[in-house]
Amino acid sequence: MTAPLRLVVIGLGARARTWLKVIAARDDATVVGLADPDAGARALAREVFPSAETAPDAAALLRRVEADAALLVTPPGRREAQIEACLEHGLDILAEKPLADDVALAARYVAQAEAAGRTLLVGLNFRYLPVTIAYRDALQRGLVGRAEFARFTYERWRDGKLSHLNKYPLSMPHPMLWEQSIHHFDLMRHVYGVEPERIDARCFNPSWSMYRGAANVFALIEFAGGMQLSYQGTWAGGVDRLDFEWRSDCSEGVLIQRDMFGELVAARRAERDFRPLPLAPHEPWITDAAGLLDMAIGAFAGRGPVQCTGRDHLHSLMMLEACIRSSERGGPVEMEEVRAALRTAPQ
């Protein structure tokens, strides 16, 4: 029997509690170390893994414990020392998205991991939702033909002051982009299987927003091959609810995802009524995290497909950068402009 993957978990806030629950349910992975500057957070996490070593930071923890991989569940703007410590100790890394809050810095992390010969993955868990798998499969099978235009809406009142949510997004310059739209942009690239070529975006705040940075993102995204997508995302919706819809109009019909975690329907052009597509059972936040961890364990062991890599993630981060540039100048941005800037950025 193969020994369980020995994980250290760096950062023990709200998201880490989900990860600890998912890991505890497995026999092919275990947590041997826990790091967080908050002693209370360390004690709470140790209730799930009582034998795990604890420390206030990654460097101190990795001096005390031997591990195979690290799970980074820390804010994206404070990871330099954590990633350096993990790579110095020969660990593979699964980092919560986004990898960094700056594209050039993320590219530097990717280069450092590649130079060290370690695998760097990013926690894009929504790829592993049954509805995402079914959406992508339907397009690949040509169920309703080829997607040519689409609309993606995510409208939510997100009270960033709630106790179970991380607080750092409240002060980010672009919280919607870096914390939420990054998932949506990754899903677009993953499901459609094409890369964006041009983005025209506006990032802003309504008067009632509790966020310091832009909680609203409106964008027109043109993908390779000519497909156009209209995107509207907000954490400052005018009513306390989440409304989600992802509609793709295709050459022979339409696909619509009506819920963030499910409800995928399809109709061909001659059909007036949409029919539901079958989805595997799932538990929100758990099934998708478990699927991501399945992939990561296989990738780290060299026995499975390597997905959600840091290098692939750079393409989604560049979409965020294009949105920021477009909003600042009030006009469209060619993706090649952002790619060229990244190629010349110091590593």
From TrEMBL:
Limits of the Gfo/Idh/MocA-like oxidoreductase N-terminal domain: 6-123
Domain of life: Bacteria
One Gene Ontology MF term: nucleotide binding
Coiled-coil boundaries: none
Pfam families: GFO_IDH_MocA (PF01408), GFO_IDH_MocA_C3 (PF22725)
Residues of the GFO/IDH/MocA-like oxidoreductase domain: 135-245
PANTHER family membership: BILIVERDIN REDUCTASE A (PTHR43377), BINDING ROSSMANN FOLD OXIDOREDUCTASE, PUTATIVE (AFU_ORTHOLOGUE AFUA_4G00560)-RELATED (PTHR43377:SF2)
Protein name, UniProt field: Predicted dehydrogenase
Native species: Limimaricola pyoseonensis
